[in-house]
């Protein structure tokens, strides 16, 4: 009977890297994926350009992984974001740094990265089975011993690495299959929820779709808990959609809305939009008033045109209680101050997000207390390893999740190979 050293389930970011690391020192590896190609999610990440990692210093990098990033200290000490860059550059893939440390291939094509990983895996003798769905992980007397495919075929191994991702964007193959196998090994799965996901709002101005498609650059968003405590602030860009808000800043804030809705007995969570994060209320008040004074005969709705996104003006004025055709000399100063405050903290009630399937990343997963942070091995089942999004780790988009997948994949692969060599 053929016994592989290692079976890797899932050929996404984590599984491909685990296969590379495991086979590097000669381990016999079988990589099984349900899809007809490997690296499908990696291929659409970073807008199809593949945001391979992020160049930030490790402490900073970990701050951008709010979902248990600290678990990654040991893994990153062994295979860091710098090592990821070197790894790709050694394969002839030139990388470039963009805003906020985001690293991309110079080709701007995710395919370059995915193909390089697949070629590497192949060149190191990994056996690849695509179109092969794993139905069951086989355990025997406290040891992972192989897998059973949906076709009924059984493969045996000394170690099994589960790298099947989370539940987001299931058309890429990640349908949450790994959680049941982890539970069968005695693991707990923490609550699963959508992160990096567009938010939905019942606000009349959202439901009316009057702002749909409006993009805002360099704004600030703050999420508040029902007691008025600030939960998080992010700045960057966002877009109004027909159901709520989306875009990088909204995505980053989304997990805090999800968690607050779970924690408090409320139906909506308040988010405030700061249209001028670099200015104070006084700055905004004085600047807008000065504008009105310069053109003292012009209706304020027209005065504000160069200052505010035009499509927001009627909404801002009506919320401030201002008539839109008054001119400088008729402006009620108290209401003008209200308007300035509104421009700095425009409230938008959020009652949820799109589903976990539509999220970029899955929050929750295999409980990290039950996984060794150095080796990624299960503390409950010998020879069982986890890596990537199936773990309870999630970061912001910007290369952080892919870094987490690569580093946990690398460490799982190396540790499993070492263990298999000692049997
Ligand atoms: C549109 C989009 C853009 C993104 N952009 C970014 C970004 O810019 N920066 C960032 O850091 N992150 C980004 N992410 C997230 C990032 O891509 C993922 O977190 C990461 O790729 C997860 O890797 P993984 O290997 O754990 O899982 P996946 O890449 O999901 O791979 C899991 C693999 O397992 C296979 N599989 C599943 N079940 C089985 C089974 N039963 N049998 C056999 N095979 C199975 C699947 O077919 C799949 O190939 C993005 C995600 C999406 C959807």
Helix/strand layout:
Elements lengths: L2 E7 L3 H12 L4 E4 L7 H9 L4 E2 L3 H6 L9 H6 L2 H10 L4 E3 L4 E4 L4 H14 L3 E3 L4 E7 L2 E7 L4 E9 L15 H7 L8 E3 L3 E2 L3 H4 L7 E10 L5 E11 L3 E3 L1 H16 L5 E6 L6 H14 L5 H4 L9 H8 L12 H12 L1 E5 L1 E2 L7 E3 L20 E3 L13 H23 L1
Helix pairs in contact: 1-6, 1-14, 2-6, 10-13, 12-13
This protein binds flavin-adenine dinucleotide.
Q: Which fold does the CATH topology of the largest domain refer to?
A: FAD/NAD(P)-binding domain
Number of strands: 19
CATH class of the largest domain: Alpha Beta
List low-pLDDT spans. Answer: none
What binds here, in terms of ligands, is: flavin-adenine dinucleotide
Characterise the protein shown here.
Helices cover 34% and strands 22% of the residues. It is α+β, with helices and mostly antiparallel strands and 423 residues long. The protein has helices at 13-24, 40-48, 58-63, 73-78, 81-90, 110-123, 178-184, 204-207, 248-263, 281-294, 300-303, 313-320, 333-344, 400-422, and strands spanning 3-9, 29-32, 53-54, 95-97, 102-105, 127-129, 134-140, 143-149, 154-162, 193-195, 199-200, 215-224, 230-240, 244-246, 269-274, 346-350, 352-353, 361-363, 384-386. The chain contains 14 helices and 19 strands. It folds into 2 domains: 3-190 and 363-422, FAD/NAD(P)-binding domain, CATH 3.50.50.60; 198-353, Helicase, Ruva Protein, domain 3 (Orthogonal Bundle). The protein is elongated and about 90 Å long. The mean pLDDT is 97. Helix 1 packs parallel to helix 14, helix 10 (281-294) crosses helix 13 (333-344) and helix 12 crosses helix 13. The strands form 4 sheets. Strands 1, 2, 6, 7, 8, 9 and 19 form a 7-stranded mixed sheet that branches. The protein has a 7-stranded antiparallel sheet with strand order 16-15-12-13-14-11-17. A 3-stranded antiparallel sheet has the order 3-5-4. Residues 9-15, 32-35, 40-42, 44-46, 51, 133-134, 163-165, 168-169, 172-175, 177, 360-361, 388-389, 395, 397-402, 405 line the site of flavin-adenine dinucleotide. Residues 5-414 form the RsdA/BaiN/AoA(So)-like Rossmann fold-like domain. It holds the Pfam family HI0933_like. Residues 193-361 form the RsdA/BaiN/AoA(So)-like insert domain. Its cofactor is FAD. InterPro entries: BaiN-like (IPR004792), BaiN-like_dom_sf (IPR023166), FAD/NAD-bd_sf (IPR036188), RsdA/BaiN/AoA(So)-like_dom (IPR055178), RsdA/BaiN/AoA(So)_Rossmann (IPR057661).
């Amino acid at each position: 009977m053929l016994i592989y050293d290692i079976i890797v389930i899932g050929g996404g970011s984590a599984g491909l890297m685990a296969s590379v690391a495991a086979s590097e020192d000669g381990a016999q590896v079988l990589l099984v994926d349900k899809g007809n190609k490997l690296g499908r999610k990696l291929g659409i990440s970073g807008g199809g350009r593949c945001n391979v990692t992020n160049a930030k210093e490790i402490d900073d990098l970990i701050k951008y992984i709010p979902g248990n990033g600290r678990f990654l200290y040991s893994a990153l000490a062994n295979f860091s974001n710098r090592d990821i860059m070197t790894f790709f550059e050694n394969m002839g893939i030139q990388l470039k740094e963009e805003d906020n440390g985001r690293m991309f291939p110079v080709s701007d094509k995710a395919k370059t990265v995915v193909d390089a990983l697949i070629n590497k895996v192949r060149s190191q003798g990994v056996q690849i089975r695509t179109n092969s769905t794993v139905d069951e992980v086989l355990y025997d007397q406290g040891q992972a011993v192989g897998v059973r495919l949906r076709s009924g075929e059984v493969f045996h191994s000394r170690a099994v690495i589960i790298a099947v991702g989370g539940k987001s964007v299931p058309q890429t193959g990640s349908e949450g299959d790994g959680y049941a196998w982890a539970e069968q090994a005695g693991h707990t799965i923490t609550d699963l929820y959508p992160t990096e996901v567009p938010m939905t709002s019942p606000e009349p101005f959202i439901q009316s779709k009057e702002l749909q498609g409006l993009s805002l650059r360099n704004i600030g968003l703050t999420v508040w808990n029902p007691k008025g405590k600030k939960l998080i602030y992010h700045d960057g860009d966002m877009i109004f959609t027909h159901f709520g808000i989306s875009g990088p800043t909204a995505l980053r804030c989304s997990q805090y809305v999800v968690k607050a809705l779970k924690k408090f007995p409320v139906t909506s969570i308040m988010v405030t939009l700061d249209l001028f994060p670099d200015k104070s209320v006084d700055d905004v008040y004085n600047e807008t008033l000065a504008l009105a004074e310069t053109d003292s005969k012009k209706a304020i709705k027209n005065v504000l045109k160069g200052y505010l996104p035009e499509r927001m003006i009627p909404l801002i004025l009506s919320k401030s209680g201002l008539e839109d055709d008054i001119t400088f000399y008729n402006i009620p100063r108290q209401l003008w101050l209200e308007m300035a405050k509104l421009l700095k903290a425009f409230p938008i009630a959020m009652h949820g997000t799109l589903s976990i399937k539509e999220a970029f990343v899955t929050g929750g997963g295999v409980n990290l207390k039950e996984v060794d942070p150095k080796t990624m091995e299960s503390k409950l089942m010998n020879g069982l390893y986890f890596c990537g999004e199936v773990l309870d780790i999630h970061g912001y988009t910007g290369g952080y999740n892919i870094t987490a997948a690569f580093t946990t994949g690398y460490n799982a692969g190396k540790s499993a190979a070492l263990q298999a060599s000692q049997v």
